[in-house]
Amino acid sequence: MSQNEVNDPRIDGIKTKIRVVPDFPKKGIMFQDITTLLLDPKAFKDTIDLFVEKYRDMNISVVAGIEARGFIFGSPIALAIGAKFVPLRKPKKLPGQIIFEEYELEYGSDRLEMHVEAVDSGDRALVVDDLIATGGTLCAAMDLLKRVGAEVVECACVIELPELKGRERLEGKPLYVLVEYR
Amino acid sequence: MFAVENGLQGDPRLKAISDAIRVIPHFPKTGIMFQDITTLLLDPVAFKHVVDIFVDRYKHMNISLVAGVEARGFIFGPPIALAIGAKFIPLRKPGKLPGKVISEEYELEYGRDRLEMSVEAVKSDERALVIDDLVATGGTLSASISLLERAGAEVVECACVVGLPKFKGQCKLKGKPLYVLVEPSQFDELTL
After folding, report:
1. Nearest CA among B94, B145, B106 for reference residue B122
2. Interface predicted TM-score (ipTM) of this complex, two decimals
3. I need a labelling partner for B39 at 20 to 30 A (CA). Which of A96, A168, B72, B96 fits?
């Protein structure tokens, strides 16, 4: 049991369903493939249930999911807790008025965009992605939400790569993860 | 086939869904009236209506696999898969899926693209549902059907939140039925 992993009997079932693919998308990266988790309806449901059980009584009004794997987990969580779902997207996908934040990835750099009218002050937000590595993407997501005045309550990911110390980049905001990979 | 043609005529949920979809003129380019479902996602009641209607339709059809088209299919597909106890398979842009993949090229309403699927994800004799937010030309859905059939699955139906009126009646895509909740919303110039 790692320090920040959740202590729940469902976790082992979830962990065994995540496939590690060496050297993808490039050499040296041990890619955490959650698509194999999605092939197991019970393990996928357990994953969502663990997040829903934690957040349903925390008055979360917005779940912000990071494109694209954050959509897969964020959307069912939002529905189950009755919150708005806000997609945080790659450039030029969202129509209308947007704000953007640039950030560096574990492998490359990118830009995240959000609709300005989707979220405002008074919203309590949960940020969801499949995995936290360096924390760059989550930081950009938090910055977008803060810029429109929302309160970021917590970040939630299925997997953490603790050696990349992403947790320390979240400016003191809590991070909840189900599985660590060392 | 639209929901109103198949038992849901007068269902107030359909109006709520339609009203929640925002129209953005001339996006991503001039002439396209973009159906923006993000405003639907900001309405938890209307978003839940979408999922409930699809789940009610598919829960007794022995669907073993829901395939969602990247990226907006990743928003509607997973809640449906979870509710009916099916696997969820992401159909992705090139280079995103690790492991062994097959790919299919297709034409969009605005451009060309390629879709990939993990071959190991699909067993033969699976009964599959394909989900996307909107159907326009049917190109993306046709590519999705091809990928699933090439891997040995049977595509039972394709489902979309929004579809052009040409998909009314018994219109099929590659011989497969299509189920659509609402027609495109109209742009209301008075809201400018």
Report:
1. B145
2. 0.96
3. B96
